[in-house]
Design goal:
Elements: H1 3-10, H2 13-23, E1 25-28, H3 34-42, E2 50-55, E3 62-63, E4 65-69, H4 75-98, H5 109-118, E5 127-131, E6 136-140, E7 151-156, E8 164-166, E9 169-174, E10 180-185, E11 192-196, E12 199-204, E13 207-217, E14 220-223, E15 225-230
Antiparallel strand pairs: 1-11, 2-4, 3-6, 4-5, 5-15, 6-13, 7-11, 7-15, 8-14, 9-10, 9-13, 12-13
Helix pairs in contact: 2-4
């Protein structure tokens, strides 16, 4: 996976950081090529890779299914997870400082996982999601335990309006004492979306305040949609 570290290093992280501070999300185009997207989708049926399958309808999470990867993660996914984390940790630490939260995230991903494991969060959280016609995902946050990293990423494995219609990525932003703001995004195949897991700071007249955010997927009108979610912390179960 030599091309992944070089791709990550070559990105304009100043621009990505600014977008995260201003919006709570950033889109990185063309992280994966077509072959990598297709291989991830083809391996959806390889049960040896996964520890758990969730039928979303059973838990009223939506309509579709997803599978949690087992450790060790495939090389491509491991390379992205460990390579992007150090670029996001400074953003997360800036947010914690702005909101006066006494949390400092380590510079490398291994140390974050050590914190998870000390809290008995031992399960891999990377997952691949599959939706068909009428599928959707309700608004939620991916926390999985008391130790969690406030930023995560999603890799898009299908081309919108070609492989599927509908299925937009939805973010909601709850401002204090105000109605929610809805953000609708439509990344392309191979793109990565970086976004906040649960909250971010927003500057007001009296300093920074906390804005809570959730994410989900709108209804699929036709076709099939796959995404790969990379959460940086591990889970209790």
């Amino acid at each position: 996976m030599q091309n992944i570290p070089s791709k990550i290093a070559s990105l304009n992280w100043e621009s990505i950081t600014e977008s995260m501070h201003q919006n709570g999300f950033a889109i990185i185009p063309n992280m994966l090529n077509n072959e990598q997207c297709e291989n991830l989708k083809e391996n959806y049926s390889n049960s040896a890779l996964y520890r758990k399958t969730v039928i979303m309808e059973r838990y009223r999470f939506g309509l579709g299914e997803y599978k949690y990867f087992n450790y060790p993660l495939p090389d491509l996914i491991q390379s992205i997870r460990t390579g992007i984390y150090p670029k996001l940790a400074p953003i997360a630490n800036t947010w914690m400082k702005a909101l006066n939260i006494n949390t400092v995230f380590p510079e490398n991903h291994t140390e974050l996982l050590e914190q998870c494991h000390a809290n008995k969060q031992l399960k891999a959280t990377v997952l691949i999601l599959k939706y068909g016609q009428s599928g959707f995902n309700t608004l939620h946050q991916d926390l999985y335990g008391d130790v969690y990293f406030p930023i995560q990423i999603v890799l898009f494995l299908n081309e919108p309006d070609e492989d599927f219609t509908g299925g937009e990525f939805v973010l909601t932003q709850q401002m204090p004492r105000a109605q929610s703001k809805v953000i609708v995004l439509k990344p392309k195949k191979g793109d990565v979306l970086v976004f906040t897991t649960n909250f971010r700071p927003v500057k007001g007249t009296k300093g920074y305040y906390r804005v809570n955010m959730k994410h989900g997927v709108s209804e699929i009108h036709s076709g099939e949609r796959h995404t790969l979610g990379i959460i940086f912390h591990d889970a209790l179960s």
